[in-house]
Specification:
Distance between the termini: 40 Å
Strand content: 15-25%
Bound molecules: NADP nicotinamide-adenine-dinucleotide phosphate
Radius of gyration: 16 Å
CATH topology: Rossmann fold
Structural class: alpha/beta
Shape: globular
Largest sheet: 7 strands, parallel
Helix content: 25-40%
Number of strands: 7
CATH class: Alpha Beta
Strand order of the largest sheet: 3-2-1-4-5-6-7
CATH superfamily: NAD(P)-binding Rossmann-like Domain
Number of domains: 1
Length: 227
């Protein structure tokens, strides 16, 4: 019997997605990782056995094509990491409508549509993970800032809870993960954590929850976050 766990990491060209692909590979998982365009980081992992696919989560036809291309394969973990933070430092009213809408589409609608399409490819005992942020917590928003991004991750959290409720009869497990503030292109050089620390913590926390039903919101240390 094949006991090797199987992960699909979506949005893995760089940053946290790339780090998660490498971490699960090193932990002995079979890994499929996606990019939008050529990624030197993923090309290096491909040489070590990671299967690299191409998909833009804003493109429904591309998501459907990937779904078909991966065939009947089952994944113990499907982790949608992709996200954007366009004009994150501008207050909501100063962000052009089309820019604000695109942040919402990529950070909230794209991951949920991807999750719904790929739900049938989860293995028994598997989980669906979505990259959220502590900034998506309404309760913990005492500092303001990152207004449109924050709202997009709050929307993702709400949509994820609805997704989990819609499929609770099937025991679907949805994990909303905050990686910490991490030194990536998005997080910037001043962030608290390096990628290795964040992804190791997230992998531990996700592995500990694999197959648990319902919707959980927690950080890279495995600590539950307030909604
Ligand atoms: N860094 C932090 O401190 C932090 C904190 C909280 C939450 N997060 C979340 O963690 C996730 C990863 O962030 P990061 O820091 O690694 O950011 P990053 O370095 O900017 O990487 C973003 C990744 O998302 C991909 N992506 C963006 N839009 C996409 C789309 N439409 N379809 C497919 N892939 C897409 C990018 O691909 P391309 O290379 O093609 O652009 C890239 O691989 C995001 O969801 C972010 O909101 C990050």
């Amino acid at each position: 019997m094949d006991t090797q766990k199987n992960a699909l990491i979506v949005g893995a060209s760089r940053g946290l997605g790339l780090g998660l692909a490498e971490t699960f590979l090193r932990r002995g998982w079979r890994v499929t990782a996606t990019q939008r365009g050529a990624s030197p980081g993923l090309a290096a992992l491909e040489a070590e056995g990671v299967r690299v696919e191409t998909v833009d989560i804003d493109d429904d036809a591309a998501v459907e094509t990937l779904h078909g291309r991966l065939g009947a394969e089952r994944f113990d973990l499907i982790f949608v990491v992709a996200g954007v933070a366009t004009q994150a430092h501008d207050p909501a009213h100063a962000v052009p409508r089309d820019v604000a809408a695109q942040v919402y589409l990529t950070n909230a609608i794209g991951p949920i549509r991807f999750a719904e399409t790929f739900r049938d490819r989860l293995a028994t005992g598997g989980s669906l993970a979505l990259m959220s942020s502590v900034l998506g917590s309404v309760a913990l928003n005492e500092s303001g800032g990152w207004e449109i991004y924050r709202a997009s991750k709050a929307a993702l959290n709400t949509l994820a809870r609805s997704l989990a409720v819609r499929h609770q009869g099937d025991g679907l497990g949805v994990l909303l993960v905050h990686p910490g503030w991490v030194r990536t292109d998005m997080g910037g050089a001043e962030a608290d954590l390096d990628v290795a620390t964040s992804v190791a913590g997230m992998a531990d926390a996700v592995e500990a929850r694999l197959g648990q039903p319902g919707c959980q919101y927690f950080d890279y240390r495995g600590e539950t976050l307030a909604w």
